[in-house]
């Protein structure tokens, strides 16, 4: 695992941000052991900011603190995925409905462009680029709604959603399904039918629960099956 040396004045926040990203991205796997002293030495900081960062990670449900100065990575599990799906299902269809009432022809062209790029990147097998335009499609609709507080809530989930999407966007059959549903959302937005937009968006998000297994497949705990111990790499 590659971590950058800490230079910021807000050391604990920097440590937290780095470890959080490594866990959410799957680089630090479920079951890996994080040792306070080892992390402090590797990052070139004292143990105090590391301890504070680990406590914040525990509050977010990403690690489990155990005795004797170490903790285990919990990462993304079914509970976390289901909670994220629940939040998105409650908020995004509402944002899409509001967006449908005010979306312009120019904004619809932007969405169509993202759809065309999605198909192109899918055919080329470019997962990173596909994930980028996938995010842009959702972000554009939410932005059009103008619901600032709702936008902020969803942006706070962005790191989790990115890893979630990366897992299923690397599966061709799931990509085809997602692109098809995005076209349905686009067509509903073009019709300015508020009920239809909300309906197709709910259907799209409810289908995401089918993708949960692929995320878990990408985060198999290291303490299951092979009994290996992770640690800092």
What does the model show?
By secondary structure, the chain is mainly α. Helices cover 67% and strands 5% of the residues. It has helices at residues 11-24, 36-43, 47-59, 78-100, 105-124, 127-145, 148-156, 158-169, 172-191, 194-206, 212-217; strands at 33-35, 63-66, 70-73. The longest helix has 23 residues, at 78-100. A hairpin with a 3-residue loop joins β2 (63-66) and β3 (70-73). It is elongated and about 60 Å long. α6 (127-145) packs across α8 (158-169). Strands 1-3-2 form a three-stranded antiparallel beta sheet. The model is unreliable at 220-233 (pLDDT under 50). It is built from eleven helices and three strands.
Structural shape:
elongated
Order of helices and strands: HEHHEEHHHHHHHH
Specify the biggest β-sheet.
3 strands, antiparallel
Oligomeric state, counting identical vs distinct chains:
single chain
| End-to-end distance | 4 Å
Q: How many strand elements?
A: 3
Number of helices: 11
Rg over C-alpha atoms, rounded to the nearest angstrom:
20 Å
Strand order of the largest sheet: 1-3-2
Secondary structure category: mainly alpha
Q: Into which percent range does the helicity of residues fall?
A: 55-70%
Mean pLDDT, all residues:
83
Into which percentage range does the β-strand content fall? under 5%
Low-pLDDT windows of residues? 220-233
